[in-house]
Amino acid sequence: MNYLVLLRHGESVWNKENRFTGFTDVELSPTGVEEARTAGAALHGKNIRFDNVFTSTLKRAYTTADIVLKEVGQGGLEQVRHDDLRERDYGDLTGLNKDDMRKKYGEEQVHIWRRSYDVQPPGGESLKDVVARVEPYYRAHIAPLLKEGRNVLLAAHGNTLRAMLIILGEYTPETVNNAEIPTGVPLVFEFENGAASKNYFLKAA
What we know:
By secondary structure, this protein is an alpha/beta fold. The protein is 40% helix and 16% strand. It has helices at 13-16, 30-45, 59-71, 98-105, 107-115, 127-147, 158-167, and strands at residues 2-8, 52-55, 79-81, 152-156, 187-192, 195-201.
Protein backbone atom coordinates (compact mmCIF):
# COMPACT_ATOMS: atom_id res chain seq x y z
CA MET A 1 0.00 0.00 0.00
CA ASN A 2 1.15 3.54 -0.72
CA TYR A 3 -0.25 7.02 -0.13
CA LEU A 4 -1.27 10.18 -1.92
CA VAL A 5 -1.73 12.99 0.59
CA LEU A 6 -3.67 16.04 -0.57
CA LEU A 7 -3.08 19.03 1.68
CA ARG A 8 -4.66 22.43 1.41
CA HIS A 9 -2.24 25.06 2.67
CA GLY A 10 -2.66 26.47 6.16
CA GLU A 11 -4.74 29.60 6.65
CA SER A 12 -3.29 32.53 4.72
CA VAL A 13 -3.47 36.18 5.71
CA TRP A 14 -6.13 36.73 3.02
CA ASN A 15 -8.12 33.70 4.17
CA LYS A 16 -8.17 35.39 7.56
CA GLU A 17 -9.31 38.66 5.99
CA ASN A 18 -12.00 36.82 3.95
CA ARG A 19 -10.60 37.93 0.59
CA PHE A 20 -10.56 36.24 -2.79
CA THR A 21 -6.90 35.27 -3.16
CA GLY A 22 -6.40 33.31 -6.37
CA PHE A 23 -2.95 33.82 -7.92
CA THR A 24 -1.91 36.50 -5.38
CA ASP A 25 1.15 35.30 -3.49
CA VAL A 26 0.29 35.88 0.18
CA GLU A 27 1.88 34.54 3.36
CA LEU A 28 0.51 32.06 5.84
CA SER A 29 -1.08 33.61 8.91
CA PRO A 30 0.27 32.56 12.33
CA THR A 31 -2.73 30.22 12.56
CA GLY A 32 -1.80 28.79 9.16
CA VAL A 33 1.73 28.06 10.31
CA GLU A 34 0.35 26.20 13.31
CA GLU A 35 -2.10 24.28 11.10
CA ALA A 36 0.82 23.15 8.92
CA ARG A 37 2.73 21.98 12.01
CA THR A 38 -0.31 20.08 13.22
CA ALA A 39 -0.70 18.44 9.79
CA GLY A 40 2.94 17.38 9.90
CA ALA A 41 2.52 15.98 13.40
CA ALA A 42 -0.53 13.97 12.28
CA LEU A 43 1.39 12.50 9.34
CA HIS A 44 4.36 11.76 11.57
CA GLY A 45 2.02 10.00 14.01
CA LYS A 46 0.79 7.74 11.21
CA ASN A 47 4.41 7.17 10.15
CA ILE A 48 3.81 8.43 6.60
CA ARG A 49 7.04 9.44 4.86
CA PHE A 50 7.21 10.82 1.35
CA ASP A 51 9.13 9.89 -1.75
CA ASN A 52 7.94 12.84 -3.83
CA VAL A 53 6.46 16.27 -3.06
CA PHE A 54 4.55 18.56 -5.41
CA THR A 55 3.34 22.07 -4.66
CA SER A 56 2.17 25.13 -6.51
CA THR A 57 4.48 28.09 -7.06
CA LEU A 58 2.59 30.15 -4.46
CA LYS A 59 4.34 30.53 -1.12
CA ARG A 60 1.34 29.59 1.04
CA ALA A 61 1.45 26.12 -0.55
CA TYR A 62 5.19 25.50 -0.59
CA THR A 63 5.68 27.00 2.88
CA THR A 64 3.05 24.57 4.18
CA ALA A 65 4.98 21.73 2.52
CA ASP A 66 8.25 22.99 4.06
CA ILE A 67 6.74 22.93 7.56
CA VAL A 68 5.14 19.50 7.09
CA LEU A 69 8.38 17.96 5.81
CA LYS A 70 10.31 19.28 8.81
CA GLU A 71 7.69 17.79 11.14
CA VAL A 72 8.00 14.34 9.54
CA GLY A 73 11.81 14.51 9.59
CA GLN A 74 12.26 15.02 5.84
CA GLY A 75 13.23 18.68 5.74
CA GLY A 76 15.74 18.14 2.92
CA LEU A 77 13.33 16.44 0.51
CA GLU A 78 13.09 18.23 -2.83
CA GLN A 79 9.81 19.84 -3.83
CA VAL A 80 8.58 20.12 -7.40
CA ARG A 81 6.68 23.41 -7.84
CA HIS A 82 4.50 24.15 -10.86
CA ASP A 83 2.09 26.87 -11.98
CA ASP A 84 -0.46 24.27 -13.09
CA LEU A 85 -1.04 23.46 -9.40
CA ARG A 86 -1.91 27.03 -8.42
CA GLU A 87 -5.22 28.14 -6.97
CA ARG A 88 -8.05 29.14 -9.26
CA ASP A 89 -7.65 32.62 -10.78
CA TYR A 90 -10.45 34.77 -9.37
CA GLY A 91 -9.85 37.49 -11.94
CA ASP A 92 -11.51 40.82 -11.12
CA LEU A 93 -12.58 39.52 -7.70
CA THR A 94 -8.99 39.02 -6.54
CA GLY A 95 -8.24 40.90 -3.33
CA LEU A 96 -11.86 41.85 -2.70
CA ASN A 97 -13.72 40.96 0.48
CA LYS A 98 -16.24 38.15 -0.01
CA ASP A 99 -18.86 39.70 2.27
CA ASP A 100 -18.57 43.04 0.45
CA MET A 101 -19.13 41.22 -2.84
CA ARG A 102 -22.22 39.49 -1.39
CA LYS A 103 -23.66 42.91 -0.47
CA LYS A 104 -22.88 44.23 -3.95
CA TYR A 105 -23.90 41.28 -6.14
CA GLY A 106 -26.04 39.14 -3.86
CA GLU A 107 -25.42 35.87 -2.02
CA GLU A 108 -26.52 33.70 -4.94
CA GLN A 109 -24.21 35.30 -7.51
CA VAL A 110 -21.16 35.08 -5.24
CA HIS A 111 -22.02 31.45 -4.46
CA ILE A 112 -22.15 30.72 -8.20
CA TRP A 113 -18.75 32.36 -8.74
CA ARG A 114 -17.22 30.43 -5.84
CA ARG A 115 -18.80 27.01 -6.18
CA SER A 116 -20.20 26.39 -9.66
CA TYR A 117 -18.24 24.08 -11.93
CA ASP A 118 -18.20 25.95 -15.22
CA VAL A 119 -19.04 29.60 -14.48
CA GLN A 120 -16.04 31.93 -14.55
CA PRO A 121 -15.86 34.97 -12.28
CA PRO A 122 -15.22 38.14 -14.32
CA GLY A 123 -11.75 37.81 -15.86
CA GLY A 124 -11.02 34.56 -14.00
CA GLU A 125 -11.17 30.76 -14.13
CA SER A 126 -13.95 28.30 -13.46
CA LEU A 127 -13.29 25.05 -11.62
CA LYS A 128 -13.62 23.36 -15.02
CA ASP A 129 -10.65 25.46 -16.17
CA VAL A 130 -8.66 24.35 -13.12
CA VAL A 131 -9.38 20.69 -13.87
CA ALA A 132 -8.20 21.28 -17.45
CA ARG A 133 -4.74 22.30 -16.24
CA VAL A 134 -4.40 20.07 -13.16
CA GLU A 135 -5.46 16.79 -14.79
CA PRO A 136 -2.76 16.66 -17.52
CA TYR A 137 -0.12 17.53 -14.93
CA TYR A 138 -1.37 14.81 -12.57
CA ARG A 139 -1.52 12.19 -15.33
CA ALA A 140 1.98 13.01 -16.57
CA HIS A 141 3.89 13.57 -13.34
CA ILE A 142 2.07 12.19 -10.27
CA ALA A 143 -0.01 9.18 -11.36
CA PRO A 144 3.05 7.24 -12.65
CA LEU A 145 4.74 7.62 -9.25
CA LEU A 146 1.67 6.27 -7.48
CA LYS A 147 1.64 3.28 -9.82
CA GLU A 148 5.26 2.64 -8.82
CA GLY A 149 4.17 2.45 -5.17
CA ARG A 150 5.60 5.80 -4.08
CA ASN A 151 4.20 8.03 -1.35
CA VAL A 152 3.33 11.47 -2.72
CA LEU A 153 2.44 14.74 -0.99
CA LEU A 154 0.52 17.35 -3.00
CA ALA A 155 0.37 20.63 -1.05
CA ALA A 156 -1.82 23.07 -2.91
CA HIS A 157 -5.09 25.01 -2.72
CA GLY A 158 -8.79 24.48 -2.15
CA ASN A 159 -9.75 24.53 -5.82
CA THR A 160 -6.66 22.62 -6.94
CA LEU A 161 -7.71 19.85 -4.58
CA ARG A 162 -11.38 20.00 -5.62
CA ALA A 163 -10.10 19.45 -9.14
CA MET A 164 -8.10 16.48 -7.86
CA LEU A 165 -11.21 14.98 -6.24
CA ILE A 166 -12.90 15.04 -9.64
CA ILE A 167 -9.81 13.62 -11.37
CA LEU A 168 -9.63 10.79 -8.81
CA GLY A 169 -13.32 10.00 -9.30
CA GLU A 170 -14.42 10.88 -5.77
CA TYR A 171 -16.75 13.62 -6.98
CA THR A 172 -18.35 14.66 -10.26
CA PRO A 173 -18.81 18.18 -11.64
CA GLU A 174 -22.38 17.93 -10.30
CA THR A 175 -21.44 16.89 -6.75
CA VAL A 176 -18.10 18.63 -6.16
CA ASN A 177 -19.92 21.62 -4.68
CA ASN A 178 -20.40 19.42 -1.58
CA ALA A 179 -16.66 18.88 -1.11
CA GLU A 180 -15.32 20.74 1.91
CA ILE A 181 -11.54 20.87 2.22
CA PRO A 182 -10.34 22.54 5.43
CA THR A 183 -7.03 24.35 5.60
CA GLY A 184 -4.13 22.34 6.97
CA VAL A 185 -5.83 18.94 7.35
CA PRO A 186 -4.26 16.07 5.33
CA LEU A 187 -6.64 14.14 3.07
CA VAL A 188 -5.01 10.71 2.78
CA PHE A 189 -5.69 8.41 -0.17
CA GLU A 190 -4.54 4.83 0.26
CA PHE A 191 -3.47 3.22 -3.01
CA GLU A 192 -3.29 -0.48 -3.79
CA ASN A 193 -2.00 -1.72 -7.15
CA GLY A 194 -2.05 1.80 -8.54
CA ALA A 195 -5.68 2.56 -7.64
CA ALA A 196 -7.14 4.50 -4.72
CA SER A 197 -8.86 2.11 -2.30
CA LYS A 198 -10.06 4.53 0.40
CA ASN A 199 -9.52 8.04 1.72
CA TYR A 200 -9.91 9.97 4.96
CA PHE A 201 -8.97 13.20 6.67
CA LEU A 202 -6.11 12.68 9.12
CA LYS A 203 -6.49 14.59 12.38
CA ALA A 204 -3.73 14.93 14.94
CA ALA A 205 -4.05 12.59 17.91
